[in-house]
Amino acid sequence: MAVATRAELTAVSPRIEDRLRRGDLTKAEVHAFRDFLADVDRDLLQHRIIAHNPYTDWFQQGTATDDELRHFVQQFSVFSNQFLVAALLRVINAPSLDQAHAAKEILINELGVIYLRQDAGPGTAGNLSEDAKDREGDPDLVSTEGTVDGGTYRHRAAHFEWLLSVGEAIGLGFDDLGKRRNGRPYTLHFCDELRRLYGAEDGQLAEGASFAVENWAAAGFWQELEDGLYRIKESRHPNLKLAFFTWHNRVEAQHAGHTLEELENVFFDPDFSAERFFQGAREILAAIAVFWTGLERDRLNGVTEVNPRMPS
Questions:
Q1: Which of 20, 215, 242, 290 is the most buried (most CB within 10 A)?
Q2: pLDDT digits (tens, 9 = 90+) for 124-152
Q3: What is the rounded CA–CA span in Å between residue 70 and residue 30?
Q4: Model-level pTM?
């Protein structure tokens, strides 16, 4: 799926134009929403960690040593696995049933429920090579479209298990990945801010954080990670599994589109606070920047030791 452009993410959609034609919205309301989207573009979508990420720029070249690769995979696994806590809080604290359903789609898919497509036929995994399954996604385990409602649970479809497959090829095991004890301070700061903001009880803060997270994820860094890993796989690690990264690279543009549609609904709510929305968005983008800056600083300082396993 193509990455959504900034123009697509900040344009008044046909949905809004249709509501204007039906009389559900006034011209003044649509004008205010257009101004709001301009602020979103200027203040959020041009944030430095979205516009330019030195670490992923470097990683894309595929020159990471095995020690650097292990360090990256461990820290990314901590963020990814600890995100489940924030995602659950977002479900619990959702301000509406529709928003709770939307949050469940993300959380439950992360845990291993495959998106069900209404037009999907029987699995076709037997027609694909193992390399194609890893590169494009095993159709019996993954889908980038559909709903978890009625979907099938598979242990092997859990995103953390895909990360375990990445770690296995470079000498990292279950105890090395995903636990808070494995995280560097900058990684744990990001995890804690995700819980505080993405999972906030204040629905305005959470909405801003969710919008920022999904648009950061859709801005292209997944492609940079996939490119770098594919180069490493081709050059020296033929058993390196890429499914975790290739799947997220394809699905995140869909998530960003959903957050824009959700934003269209909440903006016209009388209780909507642009101030708190932007607060949540800016603060989570700052935390994202701390994470990537920490990885970049470790790289430049030669810090590659995998965090030791600490006693529970």
A1: 215
A2: 445 555 555 554 445 456 666 788 888 89
A3: 49
A4: 0.85
